[in-house]
Write a structure and sequence with these properties.
The complex is a heterodimer of chains A (about 200) and B (about 290).
Chain A: H1 2-15, H2 17-30, H3 38-48, H4 51-71, H5 73-78, H6 80-93, H7 103-116, H8 125-143, H9 147-150, E1 154-159, H10 163-171, E2 185-192, E3 195-202
Helix pairs in contact in A: 1-2, 1-3, 2-3
Chain B: E1 8-12, H1 18-23, E2 30-33, E3 39-41, E4 50-52, H2 58-63, E5 69-72, H3 86-98, E6 103-107, E7 110-113, E8 119-125, H4 131-148, E9 152-155, H5 170-181, E10 184-188, H6 189-199, H7 203-209, E11 215-220, E12 224-226, E13 229-231, H8 242-249, E14 258-261, H9 268-292
Parallel strand pairs in B: 1-2, 1-14, 2-5, 5-6, 6-9, 9-10, 10-11, 11-14
Antiparallel strand pairs in B: 3-4, 7-8, 12-13
Helix pairs in contact in B: 4-5
Chain lengths: ~200, ~290
């Protein structure tokens, strides 16, 4: 099964840029866990030094990030200063499990929910993340349902700030102004005529 | 099935092309489609593995009544060493029958590893062209041909790394594969262009060595620069470096049936209808010049 081991190592170094760098620095040691022939080991060490390997890592990250950014574009803007570290940590331990990379969305959401929301006090993160997760869940649920079945399914999200000051800039991929006053709102989101509709009121 | 007896021009369908396909069908001789856009794949062994999405390919299903359809799959991972995904192959066969396809193509690469394909590389990766890899592939390609029941083509991959000590050249590998299995080739000229530019291989030499009688379909596309390399991003119009390769191949590929322009849907605002028509017209003129000579 050496060919399978070669593919496993190549896949891991494509997905984990830190492993790719370790192989570049000290290939013998970094590749020791894999059952490789001498020729396979030499090949992996050779390509680890090529610019094309760095490009492979970048393209794989871009592909994984596409799914996340499609579902959580505004959360990514709010997290922008920390996003690279978050993704490095996440992707060094979690490989894509499903063929179409849809699982990336759940991995990211779990990471934000469990690791970032409780430990980091990032302004607007909780409300924006909850809002986008509700939108994503509604869209996912609507996939297998008729429009009639989705009618009246409304998700309510608590916002601590005025959505009219947060959502419009984020929809243009711009961070909202810092330090907005606390003004609790309820944001309601539903699917109407096949499209997401959002409205809000102050509580 | 609409028989394809001489080369024509067509498009690889993407969602941005829905209106184009409805309004400009007469501009096309065929339509290629990625069937994976029509389903969510829950993975091998899943009870309802392929969950069909609501009507993403409706324009293609309508076009199938009037045009030959080519299925261009991206999920077989035919080079995965430890697993051959026969469930996926069966799914291709079902869609091939559903759309009455003229042929089915896949990529000569792997994307998944592990028994049951537990890990996805998030990128199609090429393998070294060795006898060991050829031996792995031959029975699989024969099986794929039997399962889909129409010509089965494999596409030359784009590869950004160079293994350096492969036992065969890519052209020799494809020649051997086609001779052993009877499969055809989808010759992606932009992949060839990118490989030649990035890895300093010689595209004309590649084409001279390749058995062009096995080429059934050609892909033409654009790309762009990233990190000092030319990527197969399918951005915008066909790259200028691809057209001379197409002109060289056309008179030398006797069984060629389709030249297909592929672009990423994100490039639609750059291309629009006129840009797409321009690419099709250039390709059509190149084909007609061969016919006239």
């Amino acid at each position: 099964m050496s060919l399978a081991e070669f593919q496993r190592a190549l896949t891991h170094m494509t997905l984990d840029v830190r492993l790719a760098r370790r192989i570049k620095r000290d290939g013998e040691s970094a590749l020791a866990p894999y059952g490789l022939t001498d020729r396979e080991r030499a090949r992996l060490m050779r390509i680890s030094r090529q610019p094309g390997m760095a490009l492979n890592c970048t393209l794989a990250r871009a592909n994984r990030f596409t799914s996340i950014c499609d579902a959580f574009p505004m959360t990514c803007v709010v997290l922008e200063p920390w996003l690279r570290d978050l993704l490095d940590d996440l992707w060094s331990t979690e490989a894509p499990a499903d063929y179409q990379l849809r699982g990336e969305i759940d991995l990211f959401a779990r990471c934000v929910e469990r690791e970032w929301l409780p430990r980091k006090n990032i302004e607007y993160l909780r409300e924006i993340f909850d809002y986008e997760r509700a939108c994503h869940e509604l869209v996912t649920a609507s996939r297998g349902s008729s429009l009639e079945a989705m009618a009246g399914t409304v998700r309510r999200i608590h916002f601590s700030h005025d959505p009219s000051h947060i959502l419009p800039p984020l929809q243009d991929a711009t961070a909202p102004p810092p330090g907005l006053p606390i003004t609790p709102h309820i944001v309601e989101v539903e699917i109407r005529d096949g499209a997401l509709e959002t409205r809000w009121h102050r509580t | 099935m609409t028989r394809v007896t001489e080369p024509g021009v067509g498009l690889l369908f993407n969602p941005a092309l829905a209106d184009f396909v409805r309004a400009d069908l007469e501009q096309l001789n065929h339509l290629a489609v990625i069937p994976d856009r029509a389903w969510i794949d829950h993975g091998p062994g899943h009870r309802r593995r392929f969950e069909e999405l609501p009507v993403p390919l409706a324009p293609v299903e309508q076009a199938a009544h009037r045009l030959p359809i080519a299925l261009h799959a991206i999920g077989l991972s035919i080079l995965s060493a430890d697993f051959f995904d026969t469930e996926y192959l069966d799914q291709l066969a079902r869609w091939c029958e559903r759309l009455d396809c003229a042929w089915v193509s896949e990529h000569l690469s792997f994307t998944r590893v592990g028994s049951g394909h537990g890990t996805h590389a998030a990128l199609a990766l090429a393998m070294p062209y060795d006898a060991e890899v050829l031996d792995l592939l031959i029975p699989r390609v024969r099986s794929a041909r039997r399962t889909v029941g129409v010509p089965f083509l494999l596409e030359n991959p784009v590869a950004y790394v160079d293994y350096g000590d492969e036992e065969m050249s890519e052209a020799e590998f494809f020649n051997a594969l086609m001779a052993e299995t009877g499969c055809g080739m989808l010759l992606d000229l932009h992949n060839l262009y990118a490989n030649a530019r990035n890895r300093r291989c010689d595209a004309p030499e590649y084409l001279r060595r390749l058995d062009l009688s096995g080429v059934i379909e050609i892909h033409i596309a654009g790309g762009d620069e990233m990190m000092g390399l030319h990527t197969d991003s399918h951005a915008g119009p066909v790259h200028a470096g691809v057209w001379p390769l197409l002109e060289w191949v056309l008179p030398r590929a006797p069984n060629l049936r389709a030249v297909t322009f592929e672009f990423h849907e994100g490039s639609w605002p750059l291309l629009h209808r006129q840009g797409v028509l321009t690419q099709l017209n250039i390709a059509r003129r190149a084909i007609e010049q061969v016919g006239a000579s």
